[in-house]
Amino acid sequence: MAQILAPTSQWQMRITKSSTTASPMTAKMWSSLLLKQNKRGPTKSSAKFRVLAVKSEDYTINRLEGLLNLDLTPFTDRIIAEYIWIGGSGVDVRSKSRTISKPVEHPSELPKWNYDGSSTGQAPGEDSEVILYPQAIFKDPFRGGNNILVICDAYTPQGEPIPTNKRARAAEIFANQKVIDEVPWYGIEQEYTLLQTDVKWPLGWPVGGYPGPQGPYYCGAGADKSFGRDISDAHYKACLYAGINISGTNGEVMPGQWEYQVGPSVGIEAGDHIWASRYILERITEQAGVVLTLDPKPIEGDWNGAGCHTNYSTKSMREEGGFEVIKKAILNLSLRHTDHISAYGEGNERRLTGKHETASINTFSWGVANRGCSIRVGRETEKQGKGYLEDRRPASNMDPYIVTSLLAETTLLWEPTLEAEALAAQKLALNV
């Protein structure tokens, strides 16, 4: 990443005479030349020498870095707020900056803003204004100081959430008193793949070829096993700086693929933190000249896909007797399997094949310590009789607002018919 870690600035000195090609000259050589000229006194030669000091490319980069890293705090109370929202694809993040008169501590202190929705696939050209509502703020790891990142959701000028605004519906579910009383916790495992810029082939893979088979790469170390660790580490620290509840990171099974975990987070906060972390990751890969993809199956064949496993628990699940509550939640999830699958990410059918640590997309299953199931329950949860469940179905490109709120809705607010519940209980008993 030469554009980030630029070497110390240097000057290149060139002496030209007529059309003679200039040659590089160090600062030491230039000082020596000046000293000799001073000792000799005025030159009698009619030849004219011109000394040109040309800033090197590295020096220019360092000057730019210096400006980017300016600390504005001693000079002004004004800050830069980066407004971030989800674009028309439902996966892309967009952002733009504005100056705020003073530091803020809560999103309610920030003004609403607008953007051209026709340029993001979210509004027609003849009525393109979309309104941004600030919802969550994080410290800006790129600008530092009191500058902030602002997670927003999008509305029409009449105050209606636009179709790609999934946060609004999630906020309604998490505002339900029954959900609030259960204090839903989420731990989200975001997997992602790094691609080479020009060829869109995984980082570390030979262009047009394949590395050795999977096995040594998961949590591996070494130049032949770990590709992109600097990006993962930079992202980890940037998230901690921002105030994102990131809890860990690791290299994944497919080379060039990584994972980080966010949580435990409560309610709507889980979605806000995942989207902020995705934005930061996009910015870091942008600076590194690497392409980020959340495609759930970036490479076809005998390679692991990329998921976004979502660990979930409620207050009742975490208390004594919680395992029975977990089983009831799993029963409800089995009855709404199709609803969840349809909302768990585009292209997920290429990933959920029943292979590579996944369950079939068409069949609901659960098990203890079984990573080939739709829902996994940990050994410790079984032993303690309380804990959490892991939904392994969400794809890496899932919308965390949808997944987290749907889990809460299905397990806390939705009630199946007695007949459906009895039938599902029989199927699950046979499955186990």
UniProtKB/TrEMBL annotation:
Pfam families: Gln-synt_C, Gln-synt_N. Transmembrane segments: none annotated. InterPro entries: Gln_synt_N, Gln_synt_N_sf, Gln_synth/guanido_kin_cat_dom, Gln_synth_cat_dom, Gln_synth_gly_rich_site, Gln_synth_N_conserv_site, Glutamine_Synthetase. One of its GO terms (cellular component) is chloroplast. It is an enzyme of class 6 (ligase). Its main location: plastid. The keyword Cell division does not apply. Its EC number is 6.3.1.2. PANTHER family: GLUTAMINE SYNTHETASE, GLUTAMINE SYNTHETASE, CHLOROPLASTIC_MITOCHONDRIAL. This is Glutamine synthetase. It comes from Prunus armeniaca (Apricot).
